[in-house]
Amino acid sequence: MIFSFGNYTLDVDVERTRAFYARDDRWQCDCQDCQNYDKAILTAPEAVLVFLRSLGIDPRKPAEVFNVTGMQEADGTIWYSGWFHVCGTLVECPETVTETLHENGSRGLSYRWELAYCPDPEYPFALLPVREIDLLPEGFPTPALELEINTRLPWVLPTPYQA
Fold it and tell me: pLDDT tens across 31-40, in order?
């Protein structure tokens, strides 16, 4: 199925993607940040959840997710980054990664986040398809795409945040 959003066009096999997420139970991290993500992602606006599910993604099963800053923000939220995968190919994608030459002579890569897609412009949830796959789960059907997310979610666990 062809999905066009933001600067991207993807050809996604939604049923194969959904089938993998339905049988995959490997994501079971016990750290407080991951446990909070697991519950807090369901508080995201319906537009975000519907968008992810339309691609076949289970929002509660990222390949990886982490607290970007390592702390809780003053407003009680946590900045998360992570990755989801879908079965499919990029049909159209601007160059999202640029190579930078640092003063010390080393080279580094940086993402052009201005090209990220936000399903709900009023909510901090950005998605960026990336060309290189680093975290493809074992057994995930190919061809596959990696989608990086960045979002801010509330702290919803009954226990206080522990840095």
Answer: 999 999 999 9
- The boundaries of the domain holding residue 76 are 2-154
45 lies in some domain: yes
- For residue 131, how many other CB atoms are within 10 A of its CB? 11
What 3-state DSSP class applies to 130?
strand
In a domain? residue 48: yes
Distance of CA 124 to the CA centre of its chain: 12
Instruction: Say if CB 6 and CB 114 are below 8 A apart.
Output: no
Residue 87 lies in a domain: yes
**What's the pLDDT tens digit per position in 104-161?**
766 655 556 567 788 888 888 988 887 678 788 888 889 999 999 999 999 999 989 8
| Cα–Cα distance, 10 to 61 (Å, whole number) | 20
Total domains in the chain come to 1
Both tokens of 10, joined, read 């993807």
